């Protein structure tokens, strides 16, 4: 027996459904067109909001919110049945287009919503089909970037935030984030928008090496850390050299000021940048 779905009234759902035996039905333009037409007609018949979607060769992703009086199961049954009918009619086939029942997970908060938005956008990139989300034409990312109306639902304030989701992380930020941490942030960029913007602004405020007063205790602008050590960064040459202080849990009374090679520092797999590091930053010359 199938496990009963958890449905929450008024929620968005991340819906996925795969083709039968993972056949690459939607790899070509014809398959994608059939699915796009079916989604558009479903919106004219049923009442639901479609915040995002992605039609992949073997499956689809939808971020969908049934309106009051609408049933998610009925919407998905109609979409799957009519897309299958179109496909079989064109190809003179009677085969099953879709596999087992669709998967649906309720979105419970704003961070989950943004994570799923980004997860759907990143699908074609993870599969090596495109390099940027809005290059995949059978997706909400493309429809929103091109401002194609009707199929994808957005309010103006949602649209502005979504454009940020599609924007790449600034190179200056990518340079200073350890590789493993950067990989995670790229995957869930939607949940880190504000942090990335603050980090980018802070980089502009770091003094250049040699600009700080060596007599006074300098101000730390960034904190890297591992399980045993903290690295407080005071100045930066904008490329590969940083100056700062190490505090070690192994040798707690030995604080060392030194120059760091950023590339070597980032080779430590345990290294992370504290993205929540807060301080009042003085006005200095831009380094980005």
How would you describe this protein?
This protein has nine helices and nine strands. The chain has two domains: 154 residues, 2-Layer Sandwich (Alpha-Beta Plaits), CATH 3.30.70; 101 residues, no CATH class. The strands form two sheets. A five-stranded antiparallel sheet has the order 8-7-6-5-9. The chain is elongated and about 75 Å long. Helix 1 packs antiparallel against helix 2. The chain is an alpha+beta fold.
List strands and helices in order, with pairings.
Elements: E1 13-18, H1 29-45, E2 48-55, E3 59-66, H2 72-91, E4 103-106, H3 110-126, H4 140-145, H5 156-166, H6 171-176, H7 179-187, H8 193-203, E5 222-225, E6 229-236, E7 241-248, E8 256-261, H9 262-266, E9 272-273
Antiparallel strand pairs: 1-3, 1-4, 2-3, 5-6, 5-9, 6-7, 7-8
Helix pairs in contact: 1-2
In a nutshell, what does this entry contain?
This protein has 288 residues and is an alpha+beta fold.
Q: How many distinct helices?
A: 9
> Strand share of the residues?
15-25%
Q: Name the helix and strand elements from N-terminus to C-terminus, one letter apiece.
A: EHEEHEHHHHHHEEEEHE
**Radius of gyration using CA atoms only:** 24 Å
Query: In CATH terms, what is the fold-level topology of the largest domain?
Result: Alpha-Beta Plaits
CATH-level-4 superfamily name of the largest domain: Transposase IS200-like
In the predicted model, the low-confidence regions spanning at least 5 consecutive residues are: 280-288
Assigned CATH class of the largest domain: Alpha Beta
Report the span from N to C terminus. 58 Å
Q: What's the architecture of the largest domain, going by CATH?
A: 2-Layer Sandwich
Mean pLDDT: 83
Helix content: 25-40%
Domain count: the total is 2
User: Which structural class should the secondary elements be placed in?
Assistant: alpha+beta
Q: Kindly report the spatial arrangement of strands forming the biggest sheet.
A: 8-7-6-5-9
Number of strand elements: 9
Shape: elongated
Largest sheet, in brief, is: 5 strands, antiparallel
């Amino acid at each position: 027996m199938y496990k009963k779905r958890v449905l929450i009234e008024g929620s968005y759902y991340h819906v996925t459904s795969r083709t039968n035996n993972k056949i690459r039905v939607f790899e070509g333009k014809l398959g994608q067109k059939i699915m796009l037409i079916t989604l558009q007609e479903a919106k004219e018949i049923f009442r639901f909001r479609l915040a995002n979607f992605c039609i992949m060769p073997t499956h689809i992703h939808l971020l969908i919110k049934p309106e009051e009086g609408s049933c998610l199961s009925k919407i998905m049954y109609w979409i799957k049945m009519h897309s299958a009918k179109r496909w079989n009619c064109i190809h003179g086939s009677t085969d099953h287009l879709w596999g087992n029942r669709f998967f649906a997970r309720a979105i419970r908060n704003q961070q989950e919503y943004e994570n799923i938005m980004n997860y759907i956008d990143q699908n074609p990139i993870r599969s090596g089909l495109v390099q940027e989300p809005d290059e995949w034409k059978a997706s909400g990312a493309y429809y929103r970037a091109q401002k194609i109306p009707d199929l994808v639902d957005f309010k103006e304030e949602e649209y502005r935030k979504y454009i940020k989701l599609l924007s790449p992380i600034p190179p200056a930020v990518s340079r200073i984030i350890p590789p493993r941490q950067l990989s995670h942030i790229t995957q869930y960029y939607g949940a880190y928008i504000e942090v990335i913007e603050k980090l980018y602004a802070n980089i502009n405020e770091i003094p250049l090496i040699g600009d700080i007063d060596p007599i006074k205790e300098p101000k730390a602008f960034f904190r890297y850390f591992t399980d045993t050590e903290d690295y407080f960064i005071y100045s930066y040459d904008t490329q590969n050299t940083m100056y700062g202080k190490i505090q070690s849990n192994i040798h707690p009374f030995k604080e060392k000021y030194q120059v760091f090679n950023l590339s070597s520092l980032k080779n430590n797999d345990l290294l992370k940048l504290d993205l929540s590091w807060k301080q009042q930053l003085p006005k200095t010359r831009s380094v980005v």
